[in-house]
């Protein structure tokens, strides 16, 4: 802690560079900036304490400062060990009016290249808002999550506290799960009711991504969800924009910064043709690559075929692939056996949320495999077969690990949904009994509206007769809830 702003970031002297980047990002984030104009004077988030776990990038800095501008108290960690932009983290801590010697911003616990132990230490820090006058700990009222790690920590903590202890890791558990168990064991020793108390103070969570949303629906289905959740991912102005157009930008950005390989003419295999897969395939085709797609869902497979891609099984093409991209949100989509059959120096890249899409654990324990660091987040793996593969970001989100994630404009749409979702839970909690919700369509349309002017787009206005003819209010919402866009 210095200057009263608890933090752990790489280097506060990076703040000036971060501040310049944030200033430019603000220009590209009209949705967030207009929320500041609309709501800032009324401070609707006053009294909210938000624990944020989301890639600590320049765009996230604009999100954090928007939440603060609306009155919230905020603490932040990244949701991935490689995704932090250290200059953005420094600028958020230093704040607009502070200096590296005397920071005056927001607590952040994030740096690029955390170990898993450091990552889970940082995630814990976002739940600690100091103590009240009687010395009792203060926790968050809201979580803003990406991938569900912060939500997972609370739920696991509550579960083990109720059981009276934390179990040992089972043989099949991942190394990371062992780290989580260790963190919870330590916290139970020092404060046996810590997570139960924290959970009781949490009014809800807003979740950013497909994978985190999936975890929330599972918790709810099993009757274990402890507080209401807003599924931000399934706002149309999130998943149909960020997941698709965002990756269309940041996937090639990551490939270029990591390898600078020419994509044109290469054979690229994309696993998964959901929103992220669609954007990935589009970007690579745009660079002149020959793109092959795999799917398990016949509807998505047919979409890919109609979009002009060859739809095939990974096993049938291993020997021809130059670049392999996973975008499924599923586990073990590429096995160690398959990795060993790839062409020499094939590039292996994941853009799904977790690092288990490609069997990295299997690769790390493969006898005779050797890992050579080309540069941070780019590793050549020499395999016992005699060939090498290039693995980006150790199998974690490479668009954030090797590049800087999605660009500001598309993140503005996502994060405008996030702020509206936080506002809903803070100001209209009675409308949200424990469950998983999407934002109402008029808010989704509002997010889109806020981004049209900046692109010079002029919306056509319905005449009253036209509105009546198609049966919608002239001010919207314009579509039924199940419309697919
Ligand atoms: P989605 O559900 O729209 O698409 C995933 C697709 O993968 C589905 O169509 C599914 O049928 C398919 N699939 C599942 N298992 C498969 C397998 N074994 N082989 C081939 N296809 C398979 O999900 P979305 O929104 O595209 O997200 C995918 C992942 O990307 C998630 O983990 C999400 O959290 C993450 N994500 C990453 C972003 C980034 O910046 N890198 C941005 C947004 C989401």
From TrEMBL:
- InterPro entries in UniProt: Adenosylhomocyst_ase-like_sf (IPR042172), Adenosylhomocysteinase-like (IPR000043), Ado_hCys_hydrolase_NAD-bd (IPR015878), NAD(P)-bd_dom_sf (IPR036291), S-Ado-L-homoCys_hydrolase_CS (IPR020082)
Alphabetized SUPFAM superfamilies for the sequence: Formate/glycerate dehydrogenase catalytic domain-like (SSF52283), NAD(P)-binding Rossmann-fold domains (SSF51735)
The main location class comes to cytoplasm
Q: Which residues bind NAD(+)?
A: 209-211, 243, 272-279, 295, 300, 330, 399, 406
Q: Key word Oxidoreductase present in the record?
A: no
Q: Specify one Pfam family.
A: AdoHcyase
- Give the molecular function GO annotations: adenosylhomocysteinase activity
Q: Gene3D superfamilies attached here?
A: Adenosylhomocysteinase-like, NAD(P)-binding Rossmann-like Domain
Q: Where does this one sit in the cell? A: Cytoplasm
Cellular component terms (Gene Ontology): cytosol
In Gene Ontology terms, what is a biological process of this protein? L-homocysteine biosynthetic process
Q: What is its EC number?
A: 3.13.2.1
- What are the required cofactors? NAD(+)
Q: What does the entry comment about cofactor binding?
A: Binds 1 NAD(+) per subunit.
Top enzyme class, one word, equals hydrolase
Source domain of life is: Bacteria
Which positions bind substrate?
57, 146, 208, 238, 242
**Catalysed reactions, as listed in the record:** S-adenosyl-L-homocysteine + H2O = L-homocysteine + adenosine
Q: Where is the S-adenosyl-L-homocysteine hydrolase NAD binding domain?
A: 243-405
Q: Which UniProt keywords apply?
A: Cytoplasm, Hydrolase, NAD, One-carbon metabolism
Q: Which pathway does it operate in?
A: Amino-acid biosynthesis; L-homocysteine biosynthesis; L-homocysteine from S-adenosyl-L-homocysteine: step 1/1
Matches recorded under PANTHER family: ADENOSYLHOMOCYSTEINASE (PTHR23420:SF0)
- What function is annotated for this protein? May play a key role in the regulation of the intracellular concentration of adenosylhomocysteine.
Family classification: Belongs to the adenosylhomocysteinase family.
Indicate what this protein is called per its UniProt record: Adenosylhomocysteinase
Q: What is the lineage of its organism?
A: Bacteria, Bacillati, Actinomycetota, Actinomycetes, Micrococcales
């Amino acid at each position: 802690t210095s200057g009263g702003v608890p933090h752990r970031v790489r280097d506060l002297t990076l703040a000036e560079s971060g501040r310049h980047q944030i200033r430019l990002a603000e220009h590209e984030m009209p949705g967030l900036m207009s929320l500041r104009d609309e709501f800032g004077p009324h401070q609707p988030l006053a009294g909210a304490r938000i624990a944020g776990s989301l890639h600590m990038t320049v765009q996230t800095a604009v999100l954090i400062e928007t939440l603060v501008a609306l009155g919230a108290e905020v603490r932040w960690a990244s949701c991935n060990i490689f995704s932090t932009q250290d200059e953005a983290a420094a600028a958020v801590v230093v704040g607009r009016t502070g200096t590296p010697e005397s920071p005056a911003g927001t607590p952040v616990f994030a740096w690029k290249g955390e170990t898993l132990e450091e990552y889970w230490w940082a995630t814990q820090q976002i739940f600690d808002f100091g103590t009240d006058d009687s010395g009792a700990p203060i926790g968050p009222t809201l979580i803003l999550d990406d991938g569900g790690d912060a939500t997972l920590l609370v739920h696991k903590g509550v579960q083990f506290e109720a059981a009276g202890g934390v179990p040992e890791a089972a043989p099949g558990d991942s190394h990371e799960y062992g780290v989580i168990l260790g963190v919870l064991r330590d916290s139970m020793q020092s404060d046996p009711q810590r997570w139960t108390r924290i959970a009781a103070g949490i009014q809800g969570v807003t979740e950013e991504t497909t994978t985190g949303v999936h975890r929330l629906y599972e918790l709810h289905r099993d009757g274990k969800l402890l507080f209401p959740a807003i599924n931000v991912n399934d706002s149309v102005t999130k998943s149909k924009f960020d997941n698709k157009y965002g990756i269309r930008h940041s996937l090639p950005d990551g490939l270029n910064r990591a390898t600078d390989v020419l994509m044109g003419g290469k054979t690229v295999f994309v696993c998964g043709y959901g929103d992220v897969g669609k954007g990935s395939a589009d970007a690579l085709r745009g660079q002149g690559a020959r793109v092959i797609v795999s799917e398990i869902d016949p509807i998505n497979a047919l979409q890919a075929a109609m979009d002009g891609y060859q739809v095939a099984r990974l096993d049938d093409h291993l020997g021809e692939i130059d670049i392999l991209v996973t975008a499924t949100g599923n586990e073990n989509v590429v096995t160690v056996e398959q990795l060993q059959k790839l062409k020499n120096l094939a590039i292996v890249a994941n853009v799904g949320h977790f690092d288990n899409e490609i069997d990295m654990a299997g690769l790390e324990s493969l006898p005779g495999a050797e890992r050579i660091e080309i540069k941070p987040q780019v590793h050549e793996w020499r395999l016992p077969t005699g060939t090498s593969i290039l693995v980006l970001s150790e199998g974690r989100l490479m668009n954030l690990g090797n590049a800087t994630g999605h660009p500001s404009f598309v993140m503005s749409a996502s994060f405008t949904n996030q702020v509206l979702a936080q506002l809903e839970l803070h100001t209209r909690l009675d409308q949200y009994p424990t469950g998983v919700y999407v934002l109402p369509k008029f808010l989704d349309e509002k997010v889109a509206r806020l981004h049209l002017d900046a692109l010079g787009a002029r919306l056509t206005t319905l005449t009253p007769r036209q509105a009546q003819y198609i049966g919608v209010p002239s001010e919207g919402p314009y579509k039924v809830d199940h419309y697919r866009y």
